[in-house]
Amino acid sequence: MGVNPVDLPEPQRLGVLSRLAPEPMKVVLNWGRRYSLWVFNFGLACCAIEFIAASMARHDFIRLGVIPFAPGPRQADLMIVSGTVTDKMAPAVKRLYEQMPEPKYVISFGACSNCGGPYWDSYAVTKGVDQIIPVDVYVPGCPPRPEALLQGILKLQEKIARESLGERYGHGGGTRPSTEALRSGLVAPPPASEPGPGPERGDDR
After folding, report:
1. Which tens digits make up the pLDDT trace of 49-103?
2. CB pairs under 8 A, 24+ apart, for 170-174?
3. CA distances, 94 to each of 131, 172, 181, 183 (Å)
4. Angstrom distance (rounded) from CA 161 to CA 28
5. Which cofactor does it need (predicted)?
6. Given this model, what pLDDT does residue 54 score?
């Protein structure tokens, strides 16, 4: 009695990662990301004080697998934007977000970061940080209590646990902007020019 072959669906190819990590490995990868979030705190106003309170001994979000105060954006997995984002500060927020390696996540902490808060009608205030970078979790409040930030972190961890590598990194999948769409052109590369002769001896320029 012969056995009919079963046609399996073609797996989504993710370059080198698809050859090294089978599909069930996403559970392990997501588990590692979920409980080792290095935080880059972009504190802009009073909400940053509540972030500091959440990281202290009373609330202690390190027990959730969140490591505060990353050395810089290149070592961070999570950016928490807390406070009023002004139009002058918006390019710096975007530039630092672009420096973070994938996978990276953003929590918008407080009403000012969510939508401008009480200063939404100011000519100098950005109407929400999601206008310049993608946001994964919004934490409402003015300012939110530290418990609200803990709840936001738990929601983010639930989202990471459900994450699919194919949806996040596959072409055309997910709702996150592409790398090209996130390039702001804030730091233009120097123009390519051939090196010319050095200054003449005795030239003071």
Report:
1. 888 888 887 888 888 888 877 788 888 889 989 888 888 888 889 998 988 888 8
2. 170/12, 170/14
3. 10, 22, 12, 9
4. 9
5. [4Fe-4S] cluster
6. 83
C-alpha angle with apex 104: 100 to 110, nearest 5 degrees? Answer: 100
pTM of the model: 0.68
Q: Would you mind telling me the total number of residues written for the chain in this entry?
A: 205
Assigned token pair, 29: 């990868």
Residue 112 known to bind ligand:
yes
Nearest one of 107, 53, 44, 100 to 75, comparing CA atoms: 100
164 half-sphere exposure, CB direction, 13 A CA radius: 10
Give residues with Cβ within 8 angstroms of 125, minimum separation 6. Answer: 84, 85, 86, 87, 112, 116, 119
pLDDT at 74: 86
Tokens found for residue 190: 């120097």
**How does residue 174 score in pLDDT terms, banded at 50, 70 and 90?**
very low
How far apart are the C-alpha atoms of 168 and 164, rounded to whole Å?
6
| Residue bearing tokens 């005795």 | 202
CB 72 within 8 A of CB 40: yes
Q: Could you give the percent of the chain with pLDDT greater than 90?
A: 4
Tokens 């984002």 belong to 85
Query: Is 142 annotated as belonging to a binding site?
Result: yes
Query: SS3 for 39?
Result: strand
